[in-house]
Predict the structure.
Amino acid sequence: KGVSEQIVEKYTDNYGIFTSNVNVIDVKKLFSSLPPASIITVLNNCRISMKYYKTDKITRSILTQEYLKKDGFYYDLTEKESLMENVAYHEAGHVVIRELIEADTVCFASVMTTDAGIRGIVCGTPKYDKYLGSRKSTCESLAGMACEEQKFGYYTDGAADDICDANVHLETEVRIGKYGLDLAMAGIGRDSIEVSSRTQNQIEAERKRLYSMTKKALVDNWGFVEDVARKLLECDALLYSDIQGIRKKYSLRDFSV
């Protein structure tokens, strides 16, 4: 067993602290990529919140709240704003494309109202790490934007981050020659590299091609998308078993790049 699993098991053995809508498998998946110190901090903060909310169990709301706090997210799920549905579909796009790339790669998804406005988050399991920096990862970066456009005919501010991430992935692959494009001093920090206009045009063309593929994959699996988005609007967060439960309802179309 990994260290994260041992920590979770110790807490449940000692305190038996989770409610019926939070199972231990979900918690293990959620913490699988965190360092031990962060896991202990989140669980200890959960126990403090239990006292504040006068409950003897860690509910899904408490777990979501304390898990997000580690990254500086402070949210109020009692407030629903007009952009909540847009963000739900945005995050659903990321969830679905990750799960189409490989099953069991998403352990957490949430949409929340923060002091900085509506925010969403999707967290993966270590199983997804092997795809980071690949063209499949580029498609996942573009998935939120593509999903919003498919649903609403436009996309919101979160798309800017998607495009930035996608361009970073593509520029990295250019530099190592994976697409057979211009090698722009591979191995040197990207901030110190000037990419030629020809290469920039090729990167933009490749991003558009991958965006079209991503959008088609979402359309081909739209029932999965709708189900995830709807659940995100209904729940504090979707945990591993929630996502896998939705996934198993559908015969998903293959996604290859």
